[in-house]
Amino acid sequence: MKIPEEGTLLRVFIGEADKWQSKPLYAAIVEAARKRGMAGATVTKGIMGFGRKSRMHAANILRLSEDLPVVIELVDSAEKISAFAQELDGMIKDGLVTMEPVHVALYRSDTAR
Amino acid sequence: MKIPEEGTLLRVFIGEADKWQSKPLYAAIVEAARKRGMAGATVTKGIMGFGRKSRMHAANILRLSEDLPVVIELVDSAEKISAFAQELDGMIKDGLVTMEPVHVALYRSDTAR
Amino acid sequence: MKIPEEGTLLRVFIGEADKWQSKPLYAAIVEAARKRGMAGATVTKGIMGFGRKSRMHAANILRLSEDLPVVIELVDSAEKISAFAQELDGMIKDGLVTMEPVHVALYRSDTAR
Q: What CA–CA distance (Å, rounded) separates C76 from A79?
């Protein structure tokens, strides 16, 4: 399991309540990342946010507590991240995906030693 | 509602307890972003941190639980992000704002279809 | 306390349960950052994730709730961040550290005025 020194950070902004085949979309994305052998994934839950659907519902423009934003982050090689972004394209109906280059200063696993 | 493929990520690091006109600063920033028609905003709350005021209070250098750090993130065009950063300049007495270019791989809203 | 306009963002992805000299690794990293006079640090806890050790334990591939991912973020000058990354190298047995350039649009402290 390696990540090149010049890697790519992928960030996915979706809602906690978004679903994929009746399971939470964020969990489905993490599972898809694992199946593809991505180096790792981290899901963080926000406490407030707006975007996406909320545009249509001015009264509810701040996302309700049952649909708080979540951010999923993955770091891997540019190639693996690009391929994974293609897969996400079929899963996300409502959300934002960004990519940016990152320098990997350290990537280490207990199990590799 | 569009974000160009080459967008900008704005990140605001402040304290949960910071106020703006007697409301939480992070909520005021989210509301200001919505009023400006920014594409979205996500607020995440940290579990520990230091910075800013804490420098003066060595005994309390780790932020107390009632003033945990919050991070607000917005992605939009460079122009909209720059204009919004100007507005933030008048709201933040104590904090950090960073900008970085990001590639927008996907931006999709249910309501746009 | 200054950060140059062109700063560096350091991000550390570890597990909440990771230890350093019998204290939580994330707390040890925040303390080390403070001792070095870094401008600040923010620790965020994830709600789900995988990576690192989890590769070896397919059944537990999603991190257990007692070892959720944490992300530590610091922004400072490229020089200070690089030096701090060297220190982290001796502390992290299992994790990921990334660096990326960021534009510092605002850095302000109440106490500086």
A: 30
- d(CA C102, CA B51) in angstroms, rounded, equals 18
pTM of this prediction?
Answer: 0.90
Tell whether C80 lies on the interface with A, counting CB pairs under 8 A.
no
**Residue B53 pLDDT level (bands cut at 50, 70, 90):** low
- Contact criterion met (CB < 8 Å) for B102 and A97: no
Could you tell me where the DSSP H helices lie in C1-113? 25-35, 78-89
Determine whether the interchain pair A107/C85 forms a contact, defined as Cβ–Cβ distance below 8 Å: no
A-C interface: how many C-beta pairs under 8 angstroms? Answer: 95
Q: What is the pLDDT of residues B10-39, one digit of tens each?
A: 999 999 999 999 999 999 999 999 999 999
Nearest CA of chain A to the CA of C88: how many Å? Answer: 9
For residue C1, being part of any structural domain is answered with no
Specify the CATH number for the domain of residue A26. Answer: 3.30.70.120
Chain A with chain B: Cβ pairs closer than 8 A: 97
Domain residues for the domain of A101 are: 6-112
Q: Which two tokens stand for residue B93?
A: 């007495």
pLDDT above 70 covers a percentage of chain C that reads 82
Give Cα C7 to chain centroid, integer Å: 16
In Å, how far are B73, B84, C47 from B99, measured between CA atoms?
10, 11, 26
For this complex, say whether ipTM is above 0.90. no
Would the CB atoms of C44 and B95 count as touching at under 8 Å? no
Give the CA count within 13 Å in the CB-facing half-sphere of C57. Answer: 13
d(CA B50, CA C37): 11
Question: How many domains does one find in chain B?
Answer: 1
Flag whether residue C45 sits within 8 Å of chain B, measured between CB atoms: yes
